[in-house]
Amino acid sequence: MIDSRRSSPPWWRASVHADRRPFLIGRNRIQAAFRAHFAGDDFVEVDTATLQVSPGNEAHLHAFQTEAIGHDGSAVPLYLHTSPEFACKKLLAAGETKITCFAHVYRNRERGPLHHPEFTMLEWYRVGASYERLMQDCADLIALAARTAGTQQFAFGGKTVDPFAEPERISVADAFARHAGIDLLATIGADGSTDRNALLKQVQAAGIRVADDDTWADLFSRVIVEKVEPNLGNGRVTILDRYPVAEAALARPCADDPRVAERFEVYACGVELANAFGELTDPAEQRRRFDAEMAEKQRVYGETYPLDEDFLEALQAMPEASGIALGFDRLVMLATGALRIDQVIWAPVAETHLG
Questions:
Q1: Predicted confidence band of residue 46 (pLDDT cuts 50, 70, 90)
Q2: Which of 16, 59, 172, 354 has the fewest beta carbons under 10 Å from its own?
Q3: Rounded to an integer, what distance in angstroms lies between the CA atom of residue 52 and that of residue 43?
Q4: pLDDT tens-digit readout, 92-148
Q5: Rounded CA gap, 303 and 63, in Å?
Q6: CB neighbour burial string for 251-278, b if at least 16 within 10 angstroms, e if fewer
Q7: Tens digit of pLDDT for each residue in 163-208?
Q8: Distance CA 17, CA 306 (A)
């Protein structure tokens, strides 16, 4: 039966596939180039299980849930992971020192030009390396993607980027000051605690709409979305660095300022491409942060996800490391000139029509 609610021809129509195929072949070439690049740097490629006892513990990420049925008919809840991060860090605890992983990951409530419910995350980890080393990794991979695709320029959403130019690096606090006139660090205590009212006054003065029940984190996100992100990755790649500790649940604090953490994100053409951490290895602090994230998830969405106790135990054995997650499909989009993420996914998830 033909679905009359479908807004466009299905991806498997020969004419549609013919239009998508150059992007898909470009994807394969970029993936092969990346694998060769990592192999040349003595990385070991790993493959992690999709089913996990916890999909991740970030308040605003939504997972797909399923269950494992035992021989006795009993059911145990499992989740499709939102990232291979927990499994990769367990491998670091097991003794691996340089690993990379192309993982299919799953996020519910996400679909659009830059979002897909199932997509490919490229993650890599370096034991004993600073998180600044990952910044150079990102610059190298972005340039490699462009060379492989045969392009000199990325373009998306009215912005362009030279993928071979040295990236701009700016702290979150400097970006808030430059683009919104907000003194962010004045709203963060020496212990990383946040002052909602202090930020609220500045956000209102910047002309940003707020809601009565906005938390400090909500206000922070409003500024990022409305004032900061539109100015990132225009002309050259931007590295947005040193996030507040409250916005870096898996990153260790910066040695020179405990209010901020070793976390950066990478932007090109206003598109977020990667998220990196100097990894937190304190299991007690990690548990505290996860509990806070899940309390916020309960407040906003009325649900929580379990903690991966095995992961928290593994942190005790995990060495100092830095790690990063890169949205592989998004980078392929920019390198090949695709306009939507589903154009660079070989067999996109079927669209559902709810309600």
A1: very high
A2: 354
A3: 24
A4: 999 999 999 999 999 999 899 999 999 999 999 999 999 999 999 999 999 999 999
A5: 11
A6: bbbbeeeebbbbbbbbbbbbbbbbbbbb
A7: 999 999 999 999 999 999 999 999 999 999 999 999 999 999 999 9
A8: 40
DSSP run (H or E) holding 19? helix 14-40
Backbone angle region of 12, left / alpha / beta, with phi > 0 → left and psi within -120 to 50 → alpha: alpha
Average pLDDT over residues 60-88: 96
Gap between the Cα atoms of 287 and 48, Å rounded = 23
Both tokens of 221, joined, read: 């996100």
| H/E element, 114 | none
Give the CA angle between residues 68, 117, 8 to the nearest 5°: 130
Sign of CA dihedral 339, 341, 344, 346: negative
* Burial state string for 169-198 with b = 16 or more CB within 10 A and e = fewer than 16: ebbbbebbeebbebebbebbeeeeebeeeb
Q: What is the torsion angle, in degrees rounded to the nearest 10, for the CA atoms of residue 57, residue 316, residue 45 and residue 65?
A: -30
* Residue 96, CA distances (Å) to 42, 88, 239, 311 in order: 12, 9, 27, 15
- Claim: this prediction has a pTM higher than 0.85: yes
Of the CA atoms within 13 Å of residue 32, those in its CB half-sphere come to 9
